[in-house]
Inverse folding.
């Protein structure tokens, strides 16, 4: 993985950050993917936002250990940046909608940012449809 791709996670342009994160995910480079996971804990807000853009994918491919994935999403859902909160709420599709996961979605439905609220509504509907499909085929 070219270092410039990971450096782009700190770019001022969010499209550039997102493209860099997608390039790492779809490139499949294990070192780059672990760098994305580490970037979720960065002190640099732009880096966290860029990495959180592919949070759902990071969980899907198992890059974030199942034992810590939910807590990581919960923490990110409380981030000061509404883009990070929105990305975390989207990643909630990986978790059953009960208990703590339901609390995160319910809180997101009351978020001050309309995009976070919209993401929570869409995520809740996706989870509901997936559960119905599982139960009724």
């Amino acid at each position: 993985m070219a270092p410039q791709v990971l450096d782009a996670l700190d770019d001022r342009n969010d499209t550039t950050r997102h493209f860099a994160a997608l390039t790492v995910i779809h490139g499949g480079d294990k070192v780059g993917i672990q760098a994305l996971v580490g970037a979720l804990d960065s002190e640099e807000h732009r880096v966290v936002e860029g990495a959180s853009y592919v949070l759902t994918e990071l969980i899907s491919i198992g890059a974030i250990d199942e034992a810590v994935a939910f807590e990581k999403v919960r923490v990110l859902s409380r981030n000061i940046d509404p883009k990070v909160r929105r990305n975390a709420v989207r990643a909630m599709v990986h978790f059953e909608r009960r208990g703590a996961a339901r609390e995160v979605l319910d809180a997101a439905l009351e978020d001050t940012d309309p995009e976070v609220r919209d993401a929570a509504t869409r995520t809740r509907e996706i989870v509901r449809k997936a559960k119905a499909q599982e139960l009724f085929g």
User: Anything to note?
Assistant: The first helix runs from residue 3 to 7.
